[in-house]
Amino acid sequence: MFNKVLLATAVLQARGLAESCPSLTAEYPAPSVASGYEVKLIAQGLTKPRGIVFDNNGQLLVVERGVGVTSYKVEGDGSCVNLKDKKTVVGDGALNHGIEISEDGKTLYASSMENVFKYEYDANGQSIKGSGITIVSGMTTQETLTRTLLLSRKTKGKLLVSRGSDENIDLSTVDVNDGQSQIRIFDATKETGDFEQGTTLAWGLRNAVGVAENPRDGGIWSTEANADNVERDGMDIHENNPAEELNYHGKLDDSGSAQIGKNFGYPLCYGAWNTSEIPSAGTLQIGQQFAIAEANATTQDAFCNTERQAPRLVFQPHTSPLDIKFDSKGETLYVSLHGSWNREDPVGYSVSYIKFGEDGQPTESSTSTSALNPIISNSNTTGCPDKCFRPAGLAWDTKGRLYMTSDSTGEIYVIVKEGGKALDANRPQSAAVSSRSFSAAGLAFTALATMFAYFM
């Protein structure tokens, strides 16, 4: 009899594992995964998923372009994640990237190219009440579509909104009052009106899609996707210049911060990556800014390096950083690299990390070319961008797992450490989520106990 019980338990356990750990297969070569990590494809069939965030009940909210905001219930431990019970939360096809949720979980924010909306959110019903309120407007541009949102956890009530340029090299952005290529600060509780009414955190940023707050010290960081088809002195240098950038913007609660309100160079100045391909580079170093004025560009380099704020780190051109997320201790910054469209040899298409020190700054110097450490990347980029995943949004759950959307393939991945361990082991769990989490092993134990009780 005991053997029969063990056999039945093994069958139930195998069935539970199979049901809780679905196996999905992509239509492109399997990703390359760095040693010490596990990456699993957990959802397919989404419509260009971009920004993602978890609500206070542990449900995953996703911005799908052309659809709106959808939600999933999340089950499973380790990399065995099951997304189920998909539901449309906000049916607005104009929403295209930005998403945030208040600390109490009762207010949802989302953005279109034109507006930022605020909704009263019910996590239990995975629904909103009413149609939402427009709190920021007047942001339409021709070149860039995304409006990244960040709610500060250090300075309560502050909402950051990032808006890109109106064209590839937009000369109108030399005027701070133009309102484009900027990150501005808003009161999340109020209906502000036009974007230009916000407080300027930073300007001279072509398209700062990734925006994050370091939980260690409250420092604000952004990643900039730089200009394409750049020339200097009549020479095309776009293949390996200018660099993508990681920029530091100071702390919102520090009114005396020298970083707040800085200009980061665009559209006149750009970070250098391969100085050997920049005409008349002179002593220009990686990470320093250079000018692209049509006449006498080299004479303007001094202006770029004294009157404009240099990037803290630079990345290979055309990698297109889209989202950034710190771990809970501010020791590691994770970056989604959407990948190139305008380069002979495709680059990017990965999720990588950057190490940070106790001072709240990257451990690598500003001249480093190796600050990014890949975790998951496309194993064959020759088919990119059409036949590979393109990382877009990132989000943490309360179990320390990192989720990644791929807008080009309509997919979601989860990233953990080897053996299904948390990528961020220090991330605090909410009681509401942990109380509803059942592992396959736990279910098997329950089944075993039930059968013992039955046969005893």
UniProtKB/TrEMBL annotation:
Coiled coil: none annotated. It holds the Pfam family TrAA12. Residues 1-18 form the signal peptide. Keywords: Signal. Residues 31-417 form the Pyrroloquinoline quinone-dependent pyranose dehydrogenase beta-propeller domain. It comes from the Eukaryota. The keyword Signal applies. This is Soluble quino protein glucose dehydrogenase. It comes from Lentithecium fluviatile CBS 122367. The lineage of its organism: Eukaryota, Fungi, Dikarya, Ascomycota, Pezizomycotina.
